[in-house]
Specification:
With 251 residues, the chain is an alpha+beta fold. It has a domain of 128 residues. Helices cover 31% and strands 24% of the residues. The protein is globular, with a radius of gyration of 18 Å.
Length: 251
C-alpha cells in the first residue's frame, strides 16, 4: 500500500490529450486505496479533477447472484466507456464534463488517468454533517438529490453506484446544485456493455439507483437518505420530499 506521502504529487505536471495539467491539491474526501484524485489546473487556467487508476483501463466484469454484468472497477477510464461518456455529454448536461484520458508515467510505473471538470461544492457527507440540525437544509438536500436523479433517469442514464459518498453539493443560495460523481458503473441502454450483459433486464439499474438490494455498489440514494441519523420524524419527511420531487420530475 502506498504511504500518505506517496499519494501526493503537488506541482506535478502531466499531459492529457495534448493539454498540460499541474496537480494542485489532494482531494481527501474522494480518496481511497485504489484511486488517487487531485484538483489540478490546465494550462489555460481551467480547474479540473484528475483521477489516477492502479490497474489497466478496461471494463472488468463482475458477478452477482450468478449473473455476469459489467459492474466493476475502472470502467470509467476504459476506452469504450470514455467514448460513450463523451458522446452523451451534449444530450446529458447533468454529467460531469469529461476532458480526456491518458496513460502517464508516475514515480516508477505507468498509470491511467482521467481528467474531468472540477465540480463546485463539497461532498454530501461533509455538507450533511454541517447541516445535521437544520431541517430546511436537509429537506432541500433530499429534494436536490431526487431532482438530479430524475434528470439522470429521464436522460436514460443510471448511476450504478448510488450512495451519498458519490454526491457533491454546491449550497450557495440560488446556485444550489447537487451533482453525482464517480462514473465507474454508469448505465445507458445504448452502451455497448449494457447491451452485452443485458443490464436493463437482468439488473434493473434505475430501480437500483433508488434502493439497491443486490448487496454491491451502493445501497441506493433513497435508502441512503432513509439511514441518515436525523431527529425523530424528520427521516420520514426527507423520504416524502425525495419521493415528491423524484416523481414530479420523472418522465
Amino acid at each position: 500500500m502506498l504511504s500518505q506521502q506517496q499519494w501526493r504529487f503537488p506541482g506535478e505536471e502531466i499531459v492529457i490529450n495534448g493539454q498540460r495539467y499541474t496537480i494542485d491539491t489532494w482531494l481527501n474526501a474522494q480518496q481511497c486505496e485504489r484511486h488517487q484524485v487531485y484538483a489540478a489546473t490546465r494550462a489555460d487556467g481551467l480547474k479540473a479533477a484528475v483521477k489516477f487508476y492502479p490497474w489497466s483501463a478496461r471494463a472488468m466484469p463482475y458477478a452477482y447472484q450468478h449473473t455476469w454484468t459489467h459492474l466493476g472497477r475502472e470502467r470509467d477510464v476504459s476506452r469504450q466507456c470514455v467514448l460513450e461518456w463523451s458522446a452523451r455529454q451534449d444530450d446529458c448536461p447533468f454529467l460531469v464534463k469529461l476532458l480526456g484520458r491518458a496513460q502517464v508515467w508516475r514515480g516508477q510505473r505507468w498509470q491511467w488517468c482521467l481528467a474531468t471538470e472540477l465540480v463546485a461544492g463539497i461532498p454530501a457527507e461533509a455538507y450533511l454533517k454541517q447541516k445535521q440540525y437544520e431541517e430546511g437544509a436537509l429537506l432541500r438536500f433530499a429534494a436536490g438529490v431526487a431532482d438530479t436523479l430524475a434528470q439522470w433517469h429521464n436522460g436514460g442514464v443510471a448511476h450504478g453506484d448510488p450512495h451519498l459518498g458519490n454526491v457533491m453539493v454546491n449550497g450557495m443560495g440560488e446556485a444550489y446544485q447537487v451533482t453525482f460523481i464517480d462514473y465507474n458503473n454508469v448505465h445507458h441502454p445504448h452502451f455497448y456493455y449494457c447491451q452485452r450483459f443485458h443490464c436493463f433486464t437482468a439488473y434493473r439499474p434505475y430501480e437500483a439507483d433508488l434502493a439497491n438490494d443486490y448487496g454491491v455498489f451502493g445501497e441506493g440514494f433513497r435508502t441512503s437518505l432513509a439511514s441518515l441519523p436525523v431527529p425523530l420524524g424528520l427521516g420520514q419527511r426527507l423520504l416524502e420530499a425525495f419521493d415528491d420531487h423524484y416523481h414530479a420530475a420523472r418522465r
